[in-house]
Write a structure and sequence with these properties.
- Belongs to the beta-catenin family.
- The chain has 2 domains: about 90 residues, Leucine-rich Repeat Variant (Alpha Horseshoe); about 80 residues, no CATH class.
- About 40% of the residues are buried.
- It has about 200 residues and is mainly α.
Length: about 200
């Protein structure tokens, strides 16, 4: 039956409107709200269609670019949206290829809490997105290795200055990477061993 009332907000056609806002707006609150809307749409009853529509409307590059935002809340909303969108296999492959570097850049390093001083919730969101992207995809795990992400993940997982949620999320990513036996020799050549990928 035709959509009525609040259901009108959840139609694939609305994706174009949100993507237009994400492309044109400079207001952090507006960007967060639009990314949050896509995040909700891609997790809801129409998620299969929404995920495909975002890809077909060339929305993935728009979201990846917003990972560079200076706003903590925008990075968080975009990360969660990408996580939901990556449940679509084709999206997962594309996000793994083109978003991994930006996601890793948002992680804290030994020298500083994070490049943008992101809040705990945002760091956890980024880590959970990386985990979803590399699940069932050794190619995406390889992309993570190539972006020098292992150094940051190990540092987070072993750090006493990061929260328990952050260290746990980083450990889950590391465990997933080590589960790909075909990647272990490359990891070992870079000086990593099993102990780096085990939970404390």
């Amino acid at each position: 039956s035709p959509a009525t009332g609040f259901e009108l907000l959840y139609q694939p056609d609305v994706v174009r409107l949100y993507l237009s806002i994400l492309t044109e707006s400079q207001n952090f609150n507006t960007l967060e709200a639009a990314a949050g809307a896509l995040q909700n749409l891609s997790a809801g009853n129409w998620s299969t269609y929404i995920r495909a529509t975002v890809r077909k409307e060339r929305g993935l590059p728009v979201l990846v670019e917003l990972l560079q935002s200076d706003s903590d809340k925008v990075v968080r909303a975009v990360s969660i949206a990408l996580r939901n969108l990556s449940m679509d296999r084709r999206n997962k492959d594309l996000i793994g290829s083109y978003a991994m570097g930006e996601l890793v850049r948002n992680l804290p390093s030994r020298q500083q809490r994070s490049a943008k001083n992101l809040e705990e919730d945002t760091v956890v969101a980024v880590l959970n997105t990386i985990h979803e992207i590399i699940t069932d995809s050794s190619e995406n795990a390889k992309s993570l290795i190539q972006t020098q992400g292992i150094q940051k993940l190990v540092a987070i997982s072993k750090s006493s200055s990061q929260s328990a949620r952050e260290t746990k999320a980083a450990s889950h990513v590391l465990q997933m990477i080590w589960s790909y036996k075909e990647l272990r020799s490359a990891l070992q050549k870079e000086g990593w061993n099993k102990s780096h990928f085990q939970v404390n």
